[in-house]
Specification:
Layout: H1 12-54, E1 58-59, H2 62-70, E2 74-79, E3 83-89, E4 100-106, H3 115-122, E5 125-128, H4 134-162, E6 179-181, H5 183-186, H6 197-211, H7 214-217, E7 226-230, H8 237-248, E8 252-256, H9 267-281, E9 285-290, H10 310-322, E10 333-339, H11 347-350, E11 357-360, H12 366-376, H13 388-393, H14 400-416, H15 424-436, H16 447-466, E12 473-477, E13 488-491, H17 502-512, H18 514-523, H19 531-546, H20 577-604, H21 606-619, E14 621-623, H22 624-633
Length: 634
């Protein structure tokens, strides 16, 4: 069924024909202008550059030539159709040097009948040059330069079609840098994406609408114009876009938000126009802009340097293209975008009618991590007893990129020991390497420091084992690691948690402070080894007071600093000085209370602390069962 034409408004075919005619007219005008300029340039080149280079003889008037011929100063001449070239004596020369010099003069147009007799009388050697071919002279004078000009025109046209001279050249600075992705070149489908079933369902519906629009249109539904993927880094937003390109079966244009921003004002808007023009010509099509926050940041409250801000012009053009007068129902163009900073985007970009669908791609849960590990395990060799479910369980909070990194590190560790397949021990070693860093076996500690670290880690492990809401201990080690850790205690959650009670958070603070508490109980003094523990405990206690409303004195009022949704960092405090002082007091009381609680537990189980410390000093690394055995043996 052809496009519907509205009375008074040309159809799609008429618009295309008119656009082609306008483009052809502009190309002809440019070619004619270039030809005229080229001819003028060739003439100027011949007159002022080529002829002075080719004619190096001394130019004299014809009358002077006749007088010198009569005086016997002419040595030899060559008679041409319009020029006489020869050699003559130099009357100014004092010796043999420069005694004979070349000269040239213009011949008399009607011819001089007495010239031959005068040459014979003077005994001058003369010859007659053949007249040049008119065709050859024309080709040499005009044909060759024009051919060179035409070659330059052709090369320039091809370079402009590709986007300019060089990458991002000046001739194509207003051209879009988007790449049209073909499904066969992607090699990624929805089968290669794990832990994002909801996002895949939404994107599959978009693809289905592009393939069979009549399925939805008969009920009056319309296709969403924009899909925004938001989520923390590494959760698979770009991978979902690649899978969409592999599944869609329609032209897919991929670009980045930073590719629209240049130092020249108006370039970004021109590139947005060119991108959507390409997509409309290939419609139905999909446009994907990665990191759209580079051009889509909110305009509210922004300080502009001058009246023409490049980012704002680019954003305005993007808004007009997504939901402007040029949108056509029968030739849809869907825009996809991805960002990990949705809170910075302009509200006009997020309103209904532009980005209708906003899909959150969060860190995968246990089932999602299991799917991701199964996908990544296709490309590696695993031992028969490799437990993928256990691997998914011991990696809570890991994104898809994190899991891919752990699997790759496990493969490298297995290859380093020349194994035939990756074992579960390789995976756990890779996990420790990613979380805590490389082992620093070359870092030698004296016996007192080593004993202090053993007590410190034993304190963490025992407090975690004794508290009811703490995660069970999986491994304890006093081997130094690359991120400044002299030892570590690894806990393994039994399930993914999305809500935490006040009691559970207090237990976490007590476990974090268990290392410092063990040093105080055993040594009666403290060391610098708990600096990271203090930071983590302080941050958690402050969030309890300012963000979770878990302080009776501060109350259920949010005083937390404004934080980015998926990135670390904040934008400043939002409380009065008196309230900040009260918050500090409450945070200090929370930490002091849990520190005293941890010390009390370790005093009551001092025997287990000594047993576990002894095992660590003997073997350097123990698993979680050693903690239970120490408590049972005290």
């Amino acid at each position: 069924m052809g496009p519907t034409k509205t009375p008074g408004r040309p159809g799609n075919e008429s618009n295309d024909n008119k656009g082609k005619q306008d483009l052809l007219s502009k190309q002809i005008q440019a070619a004619v202008s270039y030809l005229v300029v080229s001819l003028i340039g060739v003439w100027l080149f011949q007159q002022f550059i080529l002829q002075p280079l080719l004619i190096r003889e001394l130019a004299i008037p014809y009358s002077e030539f006749k007088s010198r011929l009569a005086a016997g100063e002419i040595v030899s001449v060559t008679l041409g159709q319009d020029r006489i070239v020869g050699r003559m004596k130099n009357p100014d020369a004092t010796g043999e040097t420069d005694a004979i010099i070349p000269f040239t003069t213009v011949a008399v147009p009607e011819g001089d009948p007495t010239l031959i007799e005068a040459l014979d009388a003077a005994g001058v050697e003369y010859s007659v040059s053949e007249p040049p071919s008119p065709v050859g002279s024309f080709l040499l004078a005009y044909g060759l330069p024009l051919a060179l000009m035409a070659g330059l025109w052709y090369a320039a046209s091809r370079q402009m079609a590709r986007g300019g001279f060089g990458a991002g050249g000046i001739m194509g600075i207003g051209k879009s840098k988007a790449t049209e992705v073909r499904p066969e070149s992607v090699g990624v489908t929805f089968q290669d994406v794990g832990g994002a079933d909801e996002a895949i369902g939404e994107l599959s519906e978009i693809i289905q609408f592009l393939k069979t629009p009549e399925q939805f249109a008969h009920l009056g539904g319309r296709i969403p114009k924009g899909v925004l993927l938001v989520g923390p880094p590494g959760t698979g937003k770009t991978l979902l876009a690649k899978a969409t390109a592999g599944e869609a079966g329609v032209p897919f244009f991929e670009t980045s938000g930073s590719e629209f921003v240049e130092m020249f004002v108006g370039v970004g808007a021109a590139r947005v126009r060119d991108l959507f023009e390409q997509a409309r010509q290939a419609a139905p099509a999909i446009i994907f802009i990665d990191e759209i926050d580079a051009i889509g940041q909110s305009r509210a409250g922004a300080v502009r340097m001058g009246g023409n801000d490049e980012r704002e012009q680019t954003l305005n053009q993007l808004l007009a293209e997504i939901d402007g007068f040029r949108t056509e129902k029968d030739r849809p163009v869907i825009i996809m975008a991805a960002t990990n900073r949705p809170e910075t985007l302009d509200p006009a970009l997020l309103r209904a009618g532009r980005f209708d669908r906003q899909i959150t791609v969060s860190a995968p849960d246990l089932a999602g991590r299991l799917q991701i590990l199964r996908i990544h395990s296709r490309a590696v060799k695993l031992t028969p007893d490799f437990d993928l479910e256990r691997a998914a369980r011991i990696t809570p909070g890991f994104s898809g990129a994190d899991l891919a990194n752990v699997v790759n590190e496990a493969a490298l560790l297995a290859a380093r020991r020349q194994a035939e397949a990756i074992s579960m021990q390789d995976f756990e070693a890779a996990l420790e390497r990613v979380v805590a860093g490389l082992e620093k076996k070359s870092r030698l500690m004296n016996e007192r420091e080593r004993t202090t670290v053993a007590y410190h880690e034993s304190g963490h492990a025992l407090v975690a084992e004794l508290l009811p809401h703490a995660d069970p201990v999986a491994k304890v080690s006093i081997v130094p690691r690359g991120r400044g850790a002299l030892g570590y205690t690894m806990q393994m959650p039994t399930e993914d948690r999305y809500l935490l009670t006040r009691e559970e958070l207090l237990d976490r603070i007590a476990v974090i402070l268990g290392g410092r508490a063990a040093e105080q109980v055993v040594r009666g003094t403290i060391s610098t080894g708990a600096s990271d523990d203090i930071q983590r405990a302080s941050e958690l206690a402050r969030r309890m007071v300012t963000e979770f409303g878990m302080s009776e004195k501060v109350g259920m009022v949010r005083y937390a600093t404004q934080q980015y949704q998926f990135l670390s960092g904040d934008t400043g405090a939002s409380a009065s000085p008196d309230t900040l002082a009260l918050i500090d007091e409450e945070v200090q009381q929370l930490i002091a209370g849990q520190y005293e609680r941890a010390q009390e537990l370790l005093r009551r189980h001092r025997g287990a602390l000594e047993i576990l410390t002894g095992k660590l000093l003997a073997t350097e690394t123990v698993d979680g069962s050693a903690v239970s055995e120490a408590l049972a043996a005290e």
